[in-house]
Write a structure and sequence with these properties.
Length: 302
């Protein structure tokens, strides 16, 4: 028996009703990742990924000809011929506006793969509770010449500051250049309060250590410093989903880690479509076990 059949026997993978046309179409040429390979990847991670993408408004990065192709669409709305397993939903605050996009199950993610969606960027809220975010994402963006160890130190500093507020932060690689510190919230505070809290966090870190951190989006000032990007936390803003692939060379993914795994050996694009199934098989369980159970409401003191 191969390793693959052993795993399938132990834990059946989800199957989809969506047909993949041209399953051999290449999305990441250097890594040889095809449309079918991407669908297989999402089948492997689905049991952990689902809560971070299901029933959330989505922004999608769609590259019909793969990562080196000329077409690159960042879409918040339907496109021509969109698969019916991708829902169109009305934003309750913009009832006349163009409908937004959502998936509700594994068929949905396979429909995204079929449509060459190579990055999935959800809102930090579910469509059960549009006005009350259920997570805060702090995005650590290192400028040029920042050592990886310093990005790790920034994540630990954010962790300490969030814990001091009674919250339970988790960490993931971005699959690009940085880390995301993601904190579950009981949906209670609204967008304005959550974004103000995220800004306060970024501002306090940069005020205490202006040589290391900044919390303003001015690219020119980033050299040697880490931008604490709190701007993922407004209504309609998005951040790449846990387990989403990145439309960049390497076929890296945004990988949830246990804090103990965040060492200098694991860079921001360390985990990929290729090595993720092996990683998940080797883990005792979900690296973000207890994420939503750890949610606390944001107290109204900032
Ligand atoms: P990295 O580690 O390389 O920074 P990242 O995912 O954090 O990876 P950022 O550039 O820091 O990337 O974040 C950009 C965010 O802005 C994304 O998370 C996404 O939700 C959003 N975004 C990405 N592309 C677009 C776009 N074309 N238009 C609007 N928003 C976008
Ligand atoms: Mn980033
Ligand atoms: Mn950013």
């Amino acid at each position: 028996v191969t390793r693959e059949t052993e795993q399938t026997a132990a834990r059946p993978l989800p199957t989809a009703a969506v047909t993949l046309t041209h399953p051999d179409r290449i999305y990441w040429p250097d890594e040889g990742v095809t449309k079918e390979g991407l669908a297989d990847y999402y089948a492997q991670v689905w049991r952990f990924m689902a809560p971070y993408v299901v029933n959330r408004p989505l922004a999608l990065l769609r590259l019909p000809d793969g990562i080196n192709g000329r077409q690159r669409f960042f879409q918040k709305h339907a496109w021509k011929g969109m698969n019916p397993h991708i829902d169109q939903i009305i934003d309750p605050k913009d009832k006349q506006g163009e409908k937004l996009l959502r998936i509700t199950d594994f068929d949905g993610v396979v429909a995204l793969v079929q449509s060459a969606v190579l990055e999935i960027h959800p809102w930090g809220t579910t469509t059960d509770n549009w006005e009350k975010p259920d997570m805060i994402t702090m995005d650590l963006d290192p400028g040029e010449e920042v050592a990886w160890e310093d990005v790790i130190a920034a994540a630990y500093e954010l962790k300490a500051r969030l814990e001091a507020e009674g919250l339970a932060p988790f960490v993931k690689t971005s699959g690009g250049k940085g880390l995301h510190v993601v904190t579950p919230l009981t949906p209670k505070a609204g967008w304005v309060q959550v974004k103000a809290f995220a800004k306060w966090l970024g501002d306090s870190m940069s005020a205490d250590n202006p040589d290391r951190y900044l919390a303003t989006a001015t690219k020119a000032k980033r050299k040697g410093r880490i931008f604490i990007d709190y701007l993922r936390n407004g209504r309609g803003n998005t951040a790449v989903a846990a387990y989403s692939t990145r439309a960049r060379p390497g076929a890296a993914v945004s990988m949830p880690l246990e804090w103990s795994e965040l060492t200098a050996d694991i860079g921001p694009a360390y985990f990929t479509v290729d090595n993720t199934p092996t990683r998940l098989d080797a883990l005792p369980g979900d690296p973000w076990d207890g994420f939503f159970a750890a949610a606390k409401p944001l107290e109204k003191k900032r």
